[in-house]
Amino acid sequence: MNQRNLKVLLGLLLAGTPAASAQTLLDTSAAISVQNTLNQTGTPALPKVPAVPGTPTPSATPDKPAATTPPVPVTPLTQPQQAQLARARAALNAGQLPQARTLFEGLIAQNYAQPEPHFGLGLTLLALGNLKGAAFEFTQLATLAPDRYEAPYNLGVIATREKRYADALRFYGQAATLAQGKAGPASERQVLEALAAEQTRAGDFAGLSTTLTQVVALEPNDVDAQFRLAQAMTLAGRSAEALPRAYAVLQRQPKRVDAALLVADIYVAQGLADRAARELDAAVGRTGNGADRARLLLRKADVLAASGDTRGAVLAAQAAAHEDSRNAAAFARLGELRVLRGNQPEAAAAYEIAVRLASRNAAYRTALAALRLALGQTAQAGRDAAQAISLKPDPATLSRAQFVRGVAAYRQGQYAQARTALRASGQLTPSAETYLWLGLSAYAMKDYAGAAGALGASVKLDPTPVARQNLASALLAAARYTEAEAVLRGLVSDLPKSGEAWYLLGLAQRAQAREPEARRSLKTAANLGHVAAKGALK
């Protein structure tokens, strides 16, 4: 599976993960969500009935509280205590938190070994923002009632809130084990979904497959859960096993685009790109929505491009753009594929539409600038690059935009501006090409030492003949004749038919007062047709 499709699949999986929520005395409410991207994870939100925010330090929250003293005998609540517990719960549910805290604390003082007051006080302290106190109460609950899943579950939500994800994963795992077969189906699923969210975050797709298998067993008619299980199995390297599950989802929901994309990804993972393309075509025929058809066709374009069929990929991307004429990504992908086909004018036309539809997308504008530069539209390329830079893009896009702006400025004779832009580009993403143009800009400004430094960096990264010859020219201009001669001797050895290299070698030797050697080099250059060399021999 290629990196583009892996990211899409992960994004879908994260989007499908239901929010985890805190187990409370009275109700459940959201406490964590995982957003639709691999690199973003949601943070728990404070629910209306206290959900679980931050975690204590590991020393304050042992995984399994140690019983250093014999357990306190549990004395049943008296009738007055039961009435007080009911009032405390009512106050908590009504948001009367100070009153709830007082009532729960009073019950703990009267009957410490009873778990319910600890549970209620933990939830109350969470709502009051006393995270350390809440974690202590949940730890006490785990000690007093080790067979109850609510304590590790809420400690898990605390850990998630404080971004202690490894702890959260461990606590949710404990809660899932305790809840299995004991909690009601809704509560058990709640725990499993919280565990699934952390397994997704951790990239534990084998564990996630196991968890979602349990979810599907609890609710076999939940098509979304079946789909998520197929995704997890695919990401865990079990794509062949996931395939019948993905088809089962499509049988229930034939127009489901994400399931069709998953089926295609599975066939790609099996090395069956042609089968994947046919499955996508079939899905396009089942789908009535133009935007959905465009998604399927764009995936087909990716599949075909990865298999080397760039012509078919261009046709698929064109169809996608036709199906959804407001989809900037479709036009950008079409432009990208046309570049692969060597059709720069048509690629630029596609990127122009992408930029028109998504005017604040710096990557699209930078790609358009690069194409215009290649097409000789230098001034417009520079303006496009400047606009892309003003959008404050990511470092990679910024580096490319600065490069285009620098080359465009150089070609327009704006050497100082070119040097500034190219230097900025090289600082972000050092490359031989960037340093080559930076060296040329410095040379044009008669900064020969700066030119030699930049061109030397270019040669180190990629010792092309062009870079070496320009480095030699800069070294000669900087009166560093011995270094220039060393570069040029290597160059004429590799390219004995290069008249320019022999000419420069002759100049380096003449500058060192070695006239006989210089004349031999210049004569070789002249015999290769180098006009300046002929003049230097007179």
Automatic annotation (TrEMBL):
Disordered, as annotated region: 40-77
Keyword Phosphoprotein on entry: no
Coiled-coil ranges from the UniProt annotation: none
TM regions (residue ranges): none
Keyword 4Fe-4S: no
Pfam families per the UniProt record, alphabetical: TPR_14, TPR_16
Signal peptide start-end: 1-22
Keywords: Repeat, Signal, TPR repeat
Composition bias, Low complexity: 57-67
Protein name: Tetratricopeptide TPR_2
